[in-house]
Write a structure and sequence with these properties.
globular; 231 residues; Uracil-DNA Glycosylase, subunit E; 38% helix; alpha/beta; binds uracil
């Protein structure tokens, strides 16, 4: 088992690789790679679609209007950004905020899976269609499965996957906002279930001698990690 400190170092190394990624043409128009931000030991991770203009400028996910709504909804369940980790299916902004192309999702997905493996969340909320379809590996749309949690094995770990409407979709549609809010309000009860049974996931070797941090305490970041937009 890798210690929390080692996973954090590996996350920083992943960020350094992402910063110079030229795997698809989106690197030509980006200002910043938006790697993801938040608590590197988060139990709860959000996966959105792709950076918009504000995110591209600042290199941080969900800092525009949709991000403010996400923060508000987090606040309503007693959480804040620093408690969770927020990432996207794509790390670079598609020009004009167009939908991600399949080959872009394919190029970027290993970075997302690396984050999942290193942060080891027990629960992942996918925001909108692109993240939901990518992580479920199925074409079912968000309007059919929002709010239906399930256990999914992604890479080596089994997580609680909880599809939600994308906050941007809720910004101007009150009925979608109400559905998103109702689904959001169930997050604490789902988190309280604890980590799902790892079932068929590979058995990990002997515990690391360095104790894992108590996840509920949401450990605070070292300053060097904060500079990378990570807590
Ligand atoms: N929408 C997303 O999906 N991600 C962001 O980072 C911002 C808006």
């Amino acid at each position: 088992m890798t210690s929390a400190g080692e996973r954090r170092e590996q996350l920083k190394a992943s960020y350094e690789r992402a910063r110079v990624c030229v795997a698809c043409a989106l690197h030509e128009s980006r200002t910043n790679v938006v790697f993801g931000a938040g608590n590197a030991d988060a139990e709860l991770m959000f996966v959105g679609e792709a950076p918009g203009a504000n995110e591209d400028q600042q290199g941080v996910p969900f800092v525009g209007q949709a991000g403010r709504l996400l923060e508000q909804l987090l606040g309503e369940i007693g959480m804040q950004r620093g408690d969770v980790f927020i990432a996207n299916t794509l790390m670079c902004r598609p020009p004009g905020n167009r939908d991600p192309y399949p080959h872009e999702l394919d190029s970027c997905r290993h970075f997302l899976f690396e984050k999942l493996e290193l942060i080891q969340p027990t629960m992942i909320c996918t925001l909108g269609n692109f993240a939901t379809k990518l992580l479920r590996g199925e074409p079912t749309g968000i309007s059919r499965i929002h709010g239906q949690h399930e256990e999914r094995t992604i890479g080596p770990r089994t997580v609680r996957l909880y599809p939600l409407y994308h906050p941007a979709a809720a910004l101007y549609t009150p009925s979608t906002l109400e559905l998103l809010r109702a689904d959001f309000l169930r997050i604490p009860e789902l988190l309280a279930l604890g980590p799902p049974d790892q079932g068929a996931a590979p058995v990990e070797p002997e515990p690391d001698p360095e104790p894992e941090p108590v996840r509920e305490t949401h450990p605070r970041p070292g300053p060097e990690v904060q500079q990378l937009g990570l807590f």
